[in-house]
Amino acid sequence: MFKQFNGVMLQCFEWYLPSDASLWKKLTRKAPDLAESGFTSVWLPPSYKCADGIKDTGYAVYDLYDLGEFDQKGSVPTKYGTKDEYLNLVKTLKENNIYVLADVVLNHRMGADETEEVLAIVENPQNRNEDLGTAKPISAWTKYNFPGRNNKYSDFKWNWTHFHGVDWDAKENKYSIYKFYGKNWDKLVDTENGNFDYLMGADVDMNNVDVVNELTNWGKWYINFTGVDGFRLDAVKHIRSDFFKKWLKELRDDSKKELFAVGEYWSQNIDSIINYLKNTDFSLNLFDVPLHYNFYNASISNGTFDMRKIFDNTITKLYPDKSVSFVDNHDTQPGQALSSWIAPWFKPIAYALTLLRLQGYPCVFYGDYFGIKHDNINPITSTLDIYLYIRKNLCYGTQTDYFDHPNIIGWTISGDKEHPNSGLAVILSNKDGGSKQMNVGKNLANSILYDVTNNLKETVYIDNDGNGIFYTKPGSVSVWIKKEVSI
User: Fold this and answer.
1) Does the model's pTM come out above 0.70?
2) Which residue, of 154, 178, 204, is where some domain finishes?
3) What percent of the chain has pLDDT over 90?
4) Residues 4, 396: Cα–Cα separation, whole Å
């Protein structure tokens, strides 16, 4: 099964990686080390050609069939490498028992080959259900002919009928949200701005039968051609939920694979998120964006955040089997539109709350594991490697929470007999240091535990009933494991 009990995902990129087509080769070399560290799946960045060619991070989709194979948009390779390098990377990762998730952007297209004259109506950007004026002709970038690919893999060509609207009139060189005359925004999307179907570029019409058939055909081709095991789905709150329910079912039936899928629904509104999950019949997981913001708020609150509420209004708490928890990602890193970078002092705490618990499927960010040269941000690799080892080898048994203090919380995991020396205790504080009596269970009774983080040098004796008194320093986390375990 894809989602292993103690599995961990690695997001394998950050926004400011160099545009030198080197990532696929770099990750291929690192695959054995990633597996040894405890990563069981990877989320690779978009593999297909985008509007800005080799300089494009991957979210301005031009041609989903060009995986760095054709001379389009000024280059053959994408920012990350060539088609053959990508296929070799997927193969190498799978040989190292790492599942591969492909980043897929289906909501919009950019970098069209030609314009078309289309009747369109300007929409109120704050309420996309409100037309501003009447329809008038605009010049829209909506013709995608892919001349560089010359019909290889698919002869499907995109035109204005396959889109709802655009944000640029090339006739008047003017930016607005233009809805094509006779079109309606999709329903079953986020209700921000009245209707949040439109995000950017040329908005794909998921009501169009030809579009749905083409995206389904592409999905089947992509899985068969690359061998990936699942998808990270971009901007799902802008795409009707019933599309994914049907699309994923067809791809799973066709490939005979589980096809783990995790969607990016960027919202702090837990009710909207859960509603979307329900509308998809829980056919995909979602990144736990509300949990990220709880981490962020706690990290900048100067100790005033009530840590007992760190999981309140999160997917991890309400639907843990549908949550992919994360600390930061390429959108939250400094300089990005959704920048909400977790303060460095809180990073070890946040990762303990994702990697060292049994709920959710945790994702580690490239920028935290390898650093971000663009902003001189150093990695916390040593801390993460310790946590990864613990999760892989010691996180078994029953979890007991001690969320009984506004600043100092903790939990224990009892361990089991199948995993020698397994079990642990975690205690953390977002303000003053302190202690807490916790029970680690019978498996660790009459043993001595030490703080593997080295924040504290003392040891803790566990009595015959599994009880011990655990300590933490101010604004830090201590992770207590058996003295016999050396990391």
Assistant:
1) yes
2) 204
3) 98
4) 12
297-316 pLDDT per residue, tens: 999 999 999 999 999 999 99
Residue 62 and residue 144 in contact, taking contact as beta carbons nearer than 8 Å:
yes
Angstrom distance (rounded) from CA 29 to CA 25? 6
Tell me: do 339 and 215 sit in the same domain: yes
Place of tokens 């010691």: 394
Q: Which amino acid, residue 428? A: L
> Which of 350, 366, 393 represents a domain boundary (last residue)?
393
Q: Residue 478: inside a domain, yes or no?
A: yes
Query: Out of 234, 288, 368, 451, which one is annotated catalytic?
Result: 234
Measured CA to CA, the distance from residue 11 to residue 366 in angstroms comes to 6
**How many CA within 13 A on the CB side of residue 382?**
4
- Within a domain: residue 23? yes
Residue 321 has pLDDT above 90, yes or no: yes
Of the candidates 186, 203, 264, 288, the residue annotated as catalytic is 264
Counting other chains too, the contacts that 58-62 makes at CB distance below 8 Å and 24 or more residues apart are 58/103, 58/105, 59/105, 59/234, 60/110, 60/111, 60/201, 61/105, 61/108, 61/109, 61/110, 61/201, 62/109, 62/110, 62/111, 62/144
> Domain holding 258: CATH number?
3.20.20.80
Structure confidence at residue 1 as a pLDDT band (50, 70, 90): very low
What is each CA distance from 470 to 225, 324, 467, in whole angstroms?
Answer: 52, 29, 10
**Whether residue 122 is found in the same domain as residue 182:** yes
* pLDDT single digits (tens) 108-153: 999 999 999 999 999 999 999 999 999 999 999 999 999 999 999 9
pLDDT digits (tens, 9 = 90+) for 173-222: 999 999 999 999 999 999 999 999 999 999 999 999 999 999 999 999 99
Q: How many domains does the chain have?
A: 3
Catalytic residue status for 123 = no
The answer to whether the beta carbons of residues 316 and 325 sit under 8 Å apart is yes
- CA dist 27 to 88, 107, 222, 260, 443, Å? 10, 28, 20, 21, 39
Query: What is the token pair recorded at 139?
Result: 């010049």
Region of residue 173 (phi > 0: left; psi between -120 and 50: alpha; otherwise: beta): left
Q: Which domain holds residue 416?
A: 399-482
234 catalytic residue (yes or no) = yes
